[in-house]
Amino acid sequence: MPSLVWDVAAPIITFNALNAFGVPTLYALVAGGVFPLTSIIRGWRKTGQIEPLGIIVVTFLAIGTTASLISGSVFFALVKDSMLTATFGLICLGSLAFGRPLTFVLIRQMVAGHDPVENARWNALYDIPSFRRTQRLIAVVWGIAYVVEAGARVGLALVVAPAVVVNVSPFIAFGVSIVLALWTRSVMVASRNRRLSEISPPPA
To answer: Among 8, 43, 194, 203, fewest CB within 10 Å belongs to which?
Structure first.
């Protein structure tokens, strides 16, 4: 819930409030984009570390915001987050060619954190063929889903007013992430149950 309020609702409220006071659309968009960055900073202050995904997000936010201000393009400011999403999806797909996919690394970080024992256990799990297939499937689904989502949001920015994009696009992104998280959990649970059934002794 805090993430929903801070990363989704706060940018929308900020944009609409600034727009109502006559602030140009471009500057209102840039101001609303500050909140995801502050979420990353709060996470860094809490854990003392910035995860790889956070570094990617900060880099793209900085590049996208700078390019938007230099170009003066409202459209670019609207789609910069979609470009980040598409890049993340492509990285997920591309990581399949380099050993363990990015999604495996991210899920391991969420589950094992910085516990060396848990990290070692997860690394060992990847040597199990069924677990490895599940992780690669997750990377494919995440990659395709995020690229398609980004394309849909760019398409939206091409056909509707900026205010509509600002009010609708974050919910599309958040909704896709929630669906993917729920699907990933169900796939992981099913994979674990299959592994347990494979190693359980047959009934007497």
So the answer is: 203
